[in-house]
Amino acid sequence: MAETKSTCPYCGVGCGVVIEHDGAQITGVRGDPGHPANFGRLCTKGSNLHLTATPVVIRHQRLHQPMKRATRGARPAALGWEQANREIAERLLAIRAAHGPDSIGIYISGQLLTEDYHAFNKLARAVIGTPHIDSNSRLCMSSAVVGYKQTLGADAPPCSYEDIELADCVLISGANPAWAHPILFRRLEAARANKPGHKLIVIDPRRTETAELADLHLQLRPGTDVALCHGLLHAVIWQGWTADDFIAAHTAGFDTLKALVRDWTPARTAQVCGLNEADIWQAAEWFATSPASLSLYCQGLNQSSAGTAKNTALINLHLATGQIAKPGAGPFSLTGQPNAMGGRESGGMATLLPGHRDPGKAEDWADMATLWNVPDLPGQPGHTAVEMFEAAARGEIRALWIACTNPAQSMPDQAVVRRALERCELVILQEAFAHTATARYADYLLPAATWGEKEGTVTNSERRISRVRPAVPPPGEARADWRIAHDIAALIDAGLGRAPRLNATSAEDLWLEHRAATRGRDLDISGLSWATLDADGPQQWPYVTAGTPRLYTDGRFATADGRARFVAKAYLPPAEAPGPRLPFELTTGRMRDQWHGMSRSGSVPGLFAHEGRPAVRLHPADAARRKLAEGELVTVRSRRGELVLPLRLDANVPPAGADIAMHWGEEFIGAQDGVNAVTHGAFCPDSRQPELKFSAVAIEPAALP
Ligand code: SF4
């Protein structure tokens, strides 16, 4: 038996794993004791990883060969790679010639490795010439990206996981790490046990397992996070808890913000947020006066039409109290996916360029053209996720290349997404798993290698780059994602009479190109190599001569003048207001033991022990008022669509709230879409992240035939 060190492919904690195998089959997995994210521990999902790679799963659930549908709706038939690549290149060239490069969209994933991201980014921007490349990370962390940029000057979480142990007060907002980031939650539990007087504040409309650990749970009305942060800041200013020297020396814009929050008295805030006024004063005191206060936040802030405002309002609190740039303090955005951070670093998104460059700046495009040795690049930001599918539904995007993600389940407002996929002339799906909802729409299915079979790097929430290593070969003819993009790019270049623009021979070649794009930037990794990662283990960027656990400790932020910016954004309610016909505020989220659309985690029967079936959860008082009973089938209806689910009574859901897990799609609940049949495509104007956490719905007894 052999062992190979790699990284868990699920969440952004980025735990190190040791894969046990015989060179052909993965037989076991355990935590890597030397990995600084998890020190040998794994959660339920991670410790069952080997069961997602059994011979039965590989035989029945993986794509093994390139496949093609002669017509939509037909059974796909196998074809060789050479023919598939040639046909795809020819069809993309024909669409490009007839309708221009902008008629092609590429939609990728935070599950891809940094090297895959780099290959797809170059394929889109340098080879095809389309600006329309975006990632499903748009759905999970783009508000955090813009929040950091607007306040601290760069998309860089300033903290480390060790700050969880060093903090005296932890404020968790819009996150349930007990389920979504379990190893970090274990670290938090241990830290609290070792630190008398530790304070934990949890801000969440639901009483989650995380909230149960809290000293103070602020169970606010969904969508009122900005109002709460303004109220907390008002209390801080009123009590004189501001860090005046820090504000004067290291920030700009405080007076404007002070004027904005003047009216947000704790009394008014309590009314808007549905909280006790005393709890707001208490939270403000603990946060401002503790020696070190850390905030952890995730989708509850990000997935909102006010996502950026929610992020900046929380960061304002850190800046006003000086709770930043010191051990145990700072605003720490948790990433959902294993390599959302790597996608941000390599700029594989419509609103980013490699090395944290800005597609709105001509000099940044010129930099990239020089680095990639091409005469020109598209020169403007592209369509973000929701916009890309809307453009396809309108017939403007005519070809979609989708890699390692399942938009026919995960994107909001499925009616638009399905229309887009049906209307496209060409849909290419590059996937490891054969049975996703999106696969039904694909003209070409390209088999991709996945965890345990791939080589490259990922970056976790604390900016730590870890190696991903192959233990066994991929099944059948499956290939590395970067290789698939690379080979078709070469054929497109040849078809355009050009020398190849993507000419790597290995994943490491692509990583070296990525590294070159970071030189001199805030995320500079010019001093790092794969040899260093192999010898010294995972490292945090920036890495010029050594890794960097904490940013801005010299008091200089990443803005032109070195001062952080207070951002004064008014509180706005969610995009869709509930009313008499649609009275419930629906939120979506994760279950503890499942991952995304369950294409991987759904293959392990034991992972259904925690939650075996989909349901809509309602507060028992709401159900009683409507004479609805536990287990009864109900119709959940919004302005976009409806779905039928069993009802679950759950006192942890707030009154007038409703909750449906994101994981179950049509493969699991029959001939209907999952929760995104009813969600909507409204998004934050700054980050373009859709509002998956708030839709107005009706819940009624299902009319059964
Ligand atoms: Fe994997 Fe996240 Fe669990 Fe760690 S906490 S084992 S990265 S799913």
Q: What features would you describe in this structure?
A:
Helix content is 33%, strand content 16%. The protein is of the alpha/beta class. It folds into four domains: 2-61, Phosphorylase Kinase, domain 1; 67-138 and 339-503, Rossmann fold; 142-334, Dimethylsulfoxide Reductase, domain 2 (3-Layer(aba) Sandwich), CATH 3.40.228.10; 584-701, Barwin-like endoglucanases. It has 26 helices and 26 strands. Strands 5-4-16-15-14-6-7 form a seven-stranded mixed beta sheet, with helices on both faces. It has a six-stranded mixed β-barrel with strand order 21-25-22-24-23-26. The longest helix is centred in the N-terminal third of the chain and has 19 residues, at 81-99. It is globular, with a radius of gyration of 24 Å. The termini are far apart. Iron/sulfur cluster binds at residues 8, 10-11, 13-15, 38, 42-43, 45-46, 181-183. Residues 1-57 form the 4Fe-4S Mo/W bis-MGD-type domain. This is Assimilatory nitrate reductase (NADH) alpha subunit apoprotein. One of its GO terms (molecular function) is oxidoreductase activity. Belongs to the prokaryotic molybdopterin-containing oxidoreductase family. NasA/NapA/NarB subfamily. Keywords: 4Fe-4S, Iron, Iron-sulfur, Metal-binding, Molybdenum, Nitrate assimilation, Oxidoreductase.
